[in-house]
Every structure is written in C-alpha cells, then in structure tokens.
Amino acid sequence: MSELVNVSMQGDIAVVTVDSPPVNTLSREVRAGLKAAFESLRGNAAVKGVVLACAGRTFLSGGDMREFETGVQAPGYHEVLRLIEDSAVPVVAALYGTVMGGGVETAIACHYRVAQEGTKLGLPEITLGIIPGAGGTQRMPRLIGLEPALDMMLSGKPLSAADAVKVSLVDTAVDGDVTAAAVAYAREIVAAGKGPRRTREMAVAGADRAGEILAARRAQLGRTFRNRNSPNVLLDAVQAAVELPFDAGIARERELSNQVERAVEGRAYRHLFFAERELRRIPGLPADVKSRQIKKVGIVGAGTMGGGIGMCFANAGIPVTIVDAKQEALDRGLATVRKNYERSVTRGSLKPEQLEQRMALIAPSLDYAALGDADLVIEAVFENMKLKKEIFARLDAVAKPGAILGTNTSTLDIDEIAAVTQRPQDVIGLHFFSPANVMRLLEIVQCAKTAPDVVMTALDVAKTIRKVGVVAKVCYGFIGNRMMDPYGREAERCVLEGATPEEVDAALEDFGMAMGILAVYDMAGVDIGHLTRVERAHLLPKDPAFYRPSAMLTERGWLGQKSGRGYYRYDSPDRKRTPDAEAIAMFAEEAARLGVPQRKPSKQEIQERCLYAMINEGARILEEGVAIRASDIDIVYTAGYGFPGYRGGPMFYADTVGLKVIYDRIVEFGRTLDPQYWQPAPLLEKLAKAGGSFAQWQAERT
Questions:
Q1: Domain stops at, among 474, 491, 512
Q2: SS (H, E, C) 552-564
Q3: N or C: which end of the chain has fewer CB within 10 A?
C-alpha cells in the first residue's frame, strides 16, 4: 500500500484506512494509496466486503486545493472513484467529522454509507466559484433525487447526519465507533446476500420534471447569485445527469468544471481561500512566540458594539465582564444581547438552555475594579480620543500585569492611546465590525510598541471567536476605513454632480457590493463619519465640497435609519429605503452654490471613480507597510465591507482589470476632475508602467 493508506482484515471484511493528517485531504498521494489498496483487493476470494475508513479528525475532508494551480496528477479523482465503485464486493464508507467536496464525492462512489452522529456532509464548491468535479453533479442527483441534490449543491451548506439519512445520502447514523459500525453493516449486507449498489446505475428521481425544475432554478439565480456564472454552469452539469448516460455526463461535468476553474470567479474565490491561510504569517514575529492565555475578558461599553463583542466571547465559552458608567446602559445592553440570542432560538440555531448558558457568562458591572482579573480588556466606546485616553488610563491602573488592553477604535491613532499607559507593549487595536456577533472580520492593529506575543494572542483570539484576523499597522482608518474615505468621497461628489443617491448605490450594487455606500451611511448613522471628519478637520482638504452631502444631512438631523431619513426616507415599518426628493433638491441647490458642474455621471463612471479611488489608496497602504500583503486588503474588504467575493477583493480585482488601465483612468480623472484627489499612488504607477500586478509584487516579497 502506502504510508497514508493501509488495509487490514476483520474476518472477511477488508478495512481500507486513510491516515493523512491533519484532515485526510484527497491529495495525489492519498489517491495513489487508495488505488493501490482497491487494486490489491480485486479478485481476492477471502474478501466479502470492504469498509473505507479514516484515522484522525475526519473522514476525507475534500480535494487538494493546491491542485487547482498545479494541475491534477495521476491517478485522478475519476479513476480512483470508478475503481471503488467497480468493486465486485460491497464497499461501505464510514463517515465522521466534516466531510466536504471530494470527500462526499468519494462517499457516494461507495455502495453504502454509515455516518457517525454529528457528521457534516456538504458539497460547498459553489461557495468557491466552482462546481463538484469528481462526479458529484452526476452521482448526487441519482442518489438523492434532482431537487434535494440541487438544494445541496446550490446552497453549499452541509447536511447533518440525521438530515443525510432523511434524503438517503446516508443509510444509517450511529453513535460511537463508526468504523466498527460500518464493519457490522458490511457483514449484514453480505449476510443478506446484497451486492454492490452502484450509484451510477440509479435513475434520477424527478427526471420527468427536470425541464420545469431546472428552468425555475435558473430563474432564481439572478436574485441569489448576482453577477455569478458558476451556478448556471452547475445547472448545466446537473442537466447532463438527467439527459445523458453516466459516462457522457461525467465527460460533460469535467468540461464544465475546467471552464469554471479557469474563469475569474473561480480564481477569485481560490485567491481568497489561500489569502486567509497567509494571514498568520507576520514579518518580524518570532517563530517560537507563544500566545498569552485568555480565560476571562473585560469589555468597557455596553452599547451595540460592546454587547456584540461580549456575545463573541460568550459563544466561545469565555466569561465576560461588561463595564459601563450607567446602570441603564448595562440593562439596555444586556437586554439587547438576550434579544439577539432569542432570535437565534426562534430560528432554531440555538437551544433555550444554550441561551441561558451564554447569558450566564456575561456579567455586568459599574466598577472598573471588576476588570482586575481579566486577561484581555477591550474598550468599545464611541470614537473620541479624549474619552478613550481617559479609559485607558483607568485600565492601566486596574488591569493585572500581563493583561492585554485592546481598543475597538476604527480610525484613531492607537499609539497615542497606548502612550497614556505604563504598558504600551500590551496595547493593541481590535477593530470589530458591526454587528460584532455576526461580521467575520477583526482588524488587528499592531502599534509601534506592541509585543510580539500580544499580536500572536490577538490572532489566536480571532480564531477562538471564529473571526478572520488581519494584522495592520497604525494609521488613520487602518486598512478598511482608510480605503473607504476616497470611495465615499467620490460617491458623495457624484451626488453633487447630479447623480441621485439611488443611482450611486445602484451602480455600486450592480458591481456586486452588498450595499451601496450611501445606504451604508444611513444604516450606520450619517453623523458617525461626519463627526470623525469634524475631529480631523485640520488634516483634511480645504475643499468646501468635500463630503458636503453628509455634512448637510447631519446639520439637518437627517441621520439615516435611526431618524427616519438621511440619503433616503425610511417611512415604512420594515425600514425599506425610498428616494427622498427633498434631499435630492437640497444637494442640487448646494452644488449650484458651490459651483459644482452638473454632469450626471454614468453607472460605469460612478463605479470606476469609487473603486479606482479605493484601489489607489490600497496601493499607498501597501507601499507604507500598513498592510502586509495585497491579499490581506482583499480579505478585509470581502470579510468586512461587502466587497463581492467573486471579484476577489479590490486588489485582486485591480489585477484582473489591469493596473495600466486603472492608472490611465486615474490620470484622466486628474485632468477632468479635481487633481488634488487623483494623483496615482507611486506603487500603482510603477507597477502599471512595468506591466506588473499586485500579485507579482506580493510574491516577490514573500
């Protein structure tokens, strides 16, 4: 056999075991081992049945993502799975852990399946911009029927073992040793005189209604998968399962799979997949640095953000103390936390007893002394430097030695905050995104004096609370909000030039942004960004048109959803946005007063101005070393700012457009618009003139 795959006998049942830590990926070496194992069993009269099992944390977890770049080396997936399916004796898969993608495709090439309770089984390829490419689109509809297979593949969501039994993906779910149960099941099959049950020979349930079913699914794609092609390609592959013989369907799946793997969408999602795995590689961080233990967390501020952060830690089983100056703020904050958990109970994602367990982990207090035994304290009050300095001075006095002091500031100079303490080495930025208990991103801001083990601890904390932690250096707005400034600036300038807020947001949403920037301002509160700009006025351009629409709305008290109107009106109970003719007229009046020419920018121009301004700032951030990698910026924007994953993030998107194209357009905007805002970043100019890309620049430095 091989070092990764071995065969043992339990009476007349052969057990083929894959042992390839950490998660039994279907690498070339594992496939070669499986091929050798099943070939060795072929024709052996002593073998009456086979169990395909794994050692370690999980059954086969999926394919080897690296092969998308290197190409699949022999033996390929189809060759190995056909060999398993062709076995003359029954093959039973012993499933446990997290079985995804190629792992599920291997399982359904087996004749029978036994799953341990708690197992998750899924075909998540659509979330990576690709389709199941090892027979999944052909076998799954045959095994569980057309509609359940489409539900599984189009959602990308895993099924529990119990749900897998209901749809006949799994034959039985067991508690305890799944390999032993699979061996016993194989013996039952043999004793009953049952032979192999080959999935490829099954008819597709629902095939008689396939035209109607597939047409209905295609009609839904524009709403659920805006601007994406892989879902349509998936339906093409499934259609082949209905219309073609199995082998012809496999050939069609292979052709379509190759097509989406080469497309920008598939490359974008793979880029993000690998970018996440690079995040913990921090230059200058010693390889042997150890994290500090975080067993208890303190939070200052019981508002929406503080409560959401508290939920993150309670969800991970870590006790939290929330301190606020007012009892009513604490009561209101904890009531909001409970309400959030109650919604989860209503949805069925949380049990009532889990709600009470998590609430019991969150303790309110009016006394900073209650934070004295916390290993990590996070300040989560509103953006005001004076207030944050006062809080950190108090934390410095009460926090125990070695406690990490984090600030949730989204824009302020954390080095200045750290300087008020006697322990700047223990201070770090932990910028959560709202709602903190939902959003995946955590910007980790490394200050000038932050200790290496504090950075490592922050990365580990992010993992513990199921966040994507991206390390940045100190500057105004760090990575995300700094790049949002020019993006928002251009959106507001387009409004002054005659585009309605609806037209600006529609252009950005058509590009794929989860929400247009002006609708985002309304949701967050138009005054939030405005007050930050007021505080930084001495550093900003002396341009009366700079962010003028938001300033006007704030002056009028039109602060967005919370006041019922902002860029839009919110008159209905569901807070659905509707155009505000009065606001539009107000912007036009102000534009005339300021002498802003009315030119009604097109959708393409709105997109280019907003996105290219953002990308240009991203290039500056890279050059300054605020972000470690271009791909880190892409993670920040796709995980925290609603940038479409199928475009790979702003810097990946820039590479697909071509840096020369973007550079030339920025130069043109410098001639036709306000030149103070349209100076190409030196790095962008250098790469554009050399025919380079951000990806190449990054590769040369890592």
A1: 474
A2: HHHHHCCCEHHHC
A3: C
Strand 427-432, strand 441-446: pairing:
antiparallel
Tell which of 262, 283, 313 closes a domain: 262
Verify that 352 and 425 share a domain, yes or no: yes
Which value, in Å, is the radius of gyration of the alpha carbons in the chain? 28
Closest CA to 78 of 150, 148, 15, 137: 137
- Which residues does residue 94 pair with via DSSP β-bridges, in sequence order? 114
Quick check: is 105 catalytic? yes
**DSSP result, 590-601:** HHHHHTPPP---
Q: Helix (H, G, I), strand (E, B), or coil: what is residue 59?
A: coil
In whole angstroms, what is the distance from residue 668 CA to residue 662 CA?
10
115 strand-pairing partners: 95, 173
Q: What is the DSSP string of 514-544?
A: SS-HHHHHHHH-HHHHHHHHHHTGGGS---T
Q: Are 298 and 309 within 8 A, CB to CB?
A: no
Rounded CA-CA distance 303/525 in Å is 15
Cβ atoms of 604 and 596 closer than 8 Å: no
Same domain, 521 and 653: yes
Name the catalytic one among 39, 67, 69, 105.
105
Q: Which of 3, 69, 125, 590 is catalytic?
A: 125
Beta-bridge mates of residue 469: 442
Task: Name the amino acid, one letter, at 476.
Answer: Y
* CATH number where 120 lies: 3.90.226.10
3-state helix, strand, coil in the chain (%, to 5): 55, 15, 35
Are the CB atoms for 469 and 623 separated by under 8 Å? no
Distance from C-alpha of 329 to C-alpha of 320, rounded to nearest angstrom: 16
CA gap 544, 534 in Å, rounded: 13
Q: How confident is the model over 47-61, as pLDDT tens digits?
A: 999 999 999 999 999
Q: Give the contacts of 534 (CB within 8 A, at least 6 positions apart).
A: none
To the query of whether residue 492 is one of the catalytic residues in this protein, the response is no
Q: How many CA atoms lie within 13 A of 627 on its CB side?
A: 31
Q: DSSP states of 284-314 as a string? A: T--TT--PPP---EEEE--SHHHHHHHHHHH
pLDDT digits (tens, 9 = 90+) for 647-663: 999 999 999 999 999 99
N- to C-terminal Cα distance for the chain?
Answer: 37
Q: How many CB atoms lie within 10 A of CB 645?
A: 21
Cα 86 from Cα 76, distance rounded (Å): 16
List the one residue out of 495, 501, 494, 483 whose CA is nearest residue 653: 483
Residue 522 CA, chain-centre distance (Å), reads 24
Which of the residues in the chain have pLDDT under 50?
A: none
Domain for residue 275, yes or no? no
Q: Which H/E stretch holds residue 406?
A: strand 404-407
CA of 74: how far to CAs of 67, 79, 91, 248, 525, in Å?
A: 11, 9, 23, 21, 56
Calpha distance 524→617 (Å, rounded)? 23
In whole angstroms, give the CA distance from residue 38 to residue 109. 13
Helices (H), 320-384: 327-347, 352-360
Specify the pLDDT at position 1.
56
Task: Give how many domains the chain has, as a whole number.
Answer: 3
